[in-house]
Design goal:
Elements: H1 8-22, H2 48-54, H3 58-69, E1 72-77, E2 80-85, H4 88-97, H5 109-114, H6 128-141, H7 144-149, H8 151-167, E3 173-174, H9 175-192, H10 197-214, H11 218-221, H12 226-231, H13 233-259, H14 268-278, H15 286-317, H16 319-333, H17 348-360, E4 370-371, E5 376-378, E6 381-383, E7 388-391, H18 393-396, H19 441-458, E8 459-462, E9 476-477, E10 483-484, E11 489-494
The chain binds protoporphyrin IX containing FE.
Cofactor: heme
Membrane topology: Single-pass membrane protein
Main location: membrane
């Protein structure tokens, strides 16, 4: 785990100086009950050293610690109490039995600064505002009907990508960038109606901001010390990024207000502005709308793009799986020469490949952190109020008690199996479960399956010469979501012509 803010030494120096000058006791609210087991906590920094010294990504370090301390583990990072949940049974307790207790979100500086003081759905505290937004997501923004209405956008953007790939036949292309641009294109058009340089800029800013904030931001680690908020370089940078992203969103909103949502097909900005105009019971401010747009944009692009990139990488490492998937897709559509989304459900093997990718590579390996507003009790342990609750779905999705040969990519395991990621099988929790479960699952899936089927149908794929399938680097990189560290380069050869499209 990195400390993205100051160097660790400077951090420790400032902290200790502050404590010496003020004579203040850092951990003021001592827990009176029995905490879940966990590694020894060091003064002031708590368990930061164990995570920093693990030299690996947080979900991996926490899985290793949980092997010693159990599936309900207590950590303290800086001042913040954390509960780490690492088994399907404990996840069921937290996300189902005690779901309302753990349904809030912790304070995070990123959401505070960039997301209009937690005004989006993702970081809203559990309560009425969250409930109202959730309803808008379910009925207005991400209903199955709305997702279907974006079908032509998926088709057009994917076709543009297929054309571009065809024109680069025989050359190594950067698939990672290609997939990112594709998913971004679909999301941009569905959300804002068109692609524009402003949106490119917006994505860049948001990703940069998330990168900055995903390490241990000093003000997140020591929230009671307001002084750190003032001197944090990261916070200063976040504020200037916020100013820019707010300016871009204002421009987008202004353009849409002028058009009054009168275009042929409504984009999500139109839908939200329409709701604002027409709905009297819940007043949605411009700031609320901007926060929701960022929610959709961040959640939407990252999850689908990351999954596509992992799926293509896993397929390149497993040539027999790739071949079988191509056969399935080609058999289904070669006679018609037209790929119809309605038939995707019949593609059992491709569906299994996506499931297996989501199992092994959950884009949010620790979910989005949850929090408990009040002190909670679970299996005889006390969880102090305002703890950060991390559910290690990366570890859970690989639990060898539930998954045979759990570390291997084997899509066949899902053929004829009813196990899925919809939040009822607690050993497969890529989209979470319970009240805070991802509302974008159907939309996210549509943006994965559509491009994947077409990439398999139109092209044969090879790794650049000299790279053997088993040598493909699958190292993960820490970020807003866990992506592959290296970009994926592949050589396409056209299998089915697109000239008639
Ligand atoms: C493969 C694609 C995706 C994955 C893996 C994914 C994963 C997740 C996860 C793990 C959570 C947290 C669940 C929890 O706390 O229990 C979440 C929440 C959320 N996701 Fe997604 N997501 C994806 C696509 C999308 C899309 C396409 C959108 C919107 C367009 C979206 C919007 C959200 C929002 C708004 C939340 C917050 C819900 C709340 O706190 O009530 N996600 N997602």
């Amino acid at each position: 785990m990195e400390i993205t803010d100051f160097s660790t030494f400077l951090l420790a120096f400032l902290l200790l100086s502050y404590l010496l000058v003020t004579g203040r006791r850092l951990i003021s609210k001592k827990s009176t009950g029995k905490l879940p087991p966990g590694p020894k906590k060091f003064p002031i920094v708590g368990n930061l050293p164990q995570l920093a010294l693990a030299g690996t990504l947080p979900h991996r370090a926490m899985r290793d610690l949980a092997k010693t301390y159990g599936p309900l583990m207590h950590l303290r990072l800086g001042e913040v109490s954390q509960l780490v949940v690492s088994s399907p049974e404990m996840a069921k307790e937290v996300l189902k039995t005690l779901d309302p207790m753990f349904a809030s979100r912790p304070d995070l500086i990123l959401a505070d600064i960039m997301l209009y003081d937690n005004a989006g759905l993702t970081f809203a505290k559990y309560g009425d505002y969250w409930r109202q937004l959730k309803k808008i997501f379910a009925t207005e923004l991400l209903s199955a009907k709305r997702v279907k209405s974006f079908r032509s956008l998926r088709e057009e953007e994917t076709l543009n990508t297929i054309r571009w790939i065809s024109s680069n036949e025989g050359k190594p292309i950067n698939m990672t960038n290609t997939l990112l641009n594709l998913v971004f294109g679909v999301l941009s058009r569905a959300t804002f109606g068109k692609k524009s340089p402003e949106q490119d800029k917006l994505v860049y800013i948001v990703n940069k901001a998330a990168e900055l904030a995903t390490g241990g931001n000093i003000s997140d680690l020591f929230p009671s010390i307001k002084f750190f908020r003032l001197i944090s370089v990261v916070n200063y940078k976040l504020k200037s990024m916020f100013a820019e992203s707010n300016r871009l969103l204002d421009m987008i909103m202004k353009e849409h207000k002028k058009g009054n949502g009168s275009g042929e097909s409504k984009d999500l900005v139109d839908v939200l502005l329409g709701y604002q105009r027409e709905n009297a019971e819940f007043s949605l401010t411009d700031e609320n709308i901007k926060a929701v747009l960022l929610d959709i944009f961040i959640g939407g692009t990252d999850g689908s793009f990351t999954t596509l990139d992992w799926a293509m990488s896993e397929l390149m490492r497993a040539p027999t799986v790739l071949k079988r998937a191509q056969e399935e897709v080609r058999q289904a559509f070669e006679t018609d020469g037209y790929i119809d989304e309605e038939k995707f459900e019949d593609l059992k093997y491709v569906t299994s490949i996506i499931k297996e990718t989501l199992r092994l590579h959950p884009p949010a390996p620790l979910l989005v952190p949850r929090s408990n507003d009040e002190t909670a009790h679970i299996l005889g342990y006390e969880v102090p109020a305002k703890s950060k609750i991390l559910v290690n779905v990366w570890a859970i999705n690989r639990d060898p008690r539930y998954w045979e040969d759990a570390e291997s990519f084997k899509p066949e395991r899902f053929l004829g199996s009813s196990v899925g990621y919809k939040g009822t099988d607690f050993h497969f929790l890529t989209f979470g479960a319970g009240r805070r479960m991802c509302p974008g699952m159907v939309y996210g899936y549509a943006n994965i399956v559509h491009p994947l089927v077409k990439l398999l149908y139109y092209f044969d794929w090879n790794l650049p010469s000299g790279i053997k399938p088993e040598e493909l680097d699958m190292t993960e990189e820490h970020g807003l979501s866990v992506k592959r560290k290296a970009d994926l380069y592949l050589i396409p050869s056209v299998r089915n012509s697109i000239s008639h499209l």
